[in-house]
UniProtKB/TrEMBL annotation:
Matches recorded under Pfam families: SURNod19
Domain of life: Eukaryota
Name of this protein: Stress up-regulated Nod 19
């Protein structure tokens, strides 16, 4: 089934980072096989990342007490805690990263298919607390970069481009905080070129869900999400910080051979076979890998960069991530095994070439002779 999210209205440079409650979703006791998404305009055409950058989208399962008045689409929950229960994934993070599904700019070219005989079980009436209903919500973070002074800087949420000194709750930002989610929250505005016409447009997240009715032939799988900023190794608590600053070259100059690496470790809370794996990275990301206690590679996921201008192939943007589909039973994780997550980013050095030629300065093939860089 193909669905559309509620309308996302944007102006050049604007940021939308809202929560949409009670989204359309398959009903009944089912096994999800895949969940794919992309941003489209009102005509249903794919929208380029060069115009609207999809920072992230996540789909979260929750239980709502029956009879609770629900504000479907807004930027905050507005629910009393006892009326609203997040039915999170099986991951270890103590807060955040509760989603079942979610990606970012890479969503168009990243496979989410769960192979047979496996399936992600949802809608089991025995798991729903008495007096509650199972529902789903979206958090969609989209940044409009049309006419931006620095489009890539907007997507990196650099605070100076947003002219932001406080977070969305009015709290002052740390002076050392140069960029991140605290600077590109819902309603903020990235700097655009002077005199730019402010053209409003409506967008949607088009999402496609594939599923089968639940049966005894399906092997249920659980979703584990890890974060390379997890503090467990140092504090004993799985405090996942969500974001971090990519380390700069020690020379202070961007070079194409400098790679920034970040690692974290985690004790896996159960045992089982790995069915599928994928990483999520932002611009500059090379890839990410999960290693077992003995150093074996459990999953390695590499960034796919676009090379053109078409939606889904935008040069300079991550448009996909490679995925892991081990042979059934070939990759196992044991209860309590210490896993290591590694993410690698690269500082890209861009060189601009300027070619000049003066009248009459041509060879016999009518090609310019001189170049200056």
């Amino acid at each position: 089934m193909v669905y559309l999210s509620p309308k996302i209205t944007q102006l050049p440079g604007s940021v939308s980072n809202k929560f949409y409650y009670d989204i359309e979703f398959p009903k009944g006791h089912i096994a999800i096989k895949s969940f794919d998404a992309e941003v489209v305009d009102e005509a249903g055409d794919p929208v380029s990342l060069k115009e609207t950058y999809l920072h992230h989208w996540v789909a979260v399962r929750y239980y709502l007490r029956k009879g609770t008045k629900e504000a479907k689409h807004n930027s905050n929950s507005g629910f009393h805690q006892s009326d609203f229960i997040i039915a999170r994934n099986a991951g270890v993070c103590n807060h955040g990263l509760t989603q079942f599904f979610g990606l970012g700019s890479e969503t168009r070219k990243t496979s989410t298919y769960v192979p047979d005989p496996y399936g992600i079980e949802v809608g089991n009436p025995l798991e729903v607390p008495e007096g509650y209903e199972e529902k789903w919500l979206f958090n969609i973070h989209a940044i409009d970069t049309r006419g931006a002074v620095d489009a890539m800087g907007c997507t990196e949420c650099r605070c100076n481009l947003y002219n932001v000194t406080i977070d969305e709750y009015g709290r002052p930002l740390n002076p050392d905080y140069e960029g991140g989610l605290y600077c590109c929250y819902d309603g903020t505005q990235c700097k655009v070129k002077n005199g730019l016409e402010s053209v409003k447009r409506n967008l949607y997240l088009k999402y496609t869900v594939k599923w089968v009715d639940w049966s005894d032939s399906i092997v249920p799988v659980k979703i584990f999400i890890f974060d390379v900023t997890d503090t467990w190794q140092k504090t004993g608590i799985h405090d996942c910080l969500i974001e971090f600053d990519v380390e700069q070259s020690t020379t202070g100059v961007a070079t194409n051979d400098f790679i920034s690496t970040r690692r974290s470790s985690v004790s896996f809370p159960t045992s089982g076979d790995v069915v599928y794996g994928v990483a999520h990275l932002h611009s500059g990301g090379i890839g990410s890998a999960l290693y077992g206690e003995d150093g074996r590679v459990i999953c390695s996921s590499k960034a796919i960069y676009g090379e053109g201008n078409d939606a889904g192939d935008e040069a300079g943007y991550i448009v996909g991530m490679s995925t892991c589909y081990p042979e059934p039973g070939s990759i196992k994780i044991t209860n309590g095994e210490i896993l290591t997550l590694e993410s690698n980013y690269k500082q890209f050095l861009y060189i601009t070439l300027k070619r000049t030629c003066t009248k009459g300065d041509q060879n016999e093939s009518s090609q310019p002779k001189g170049y200056t860089t």
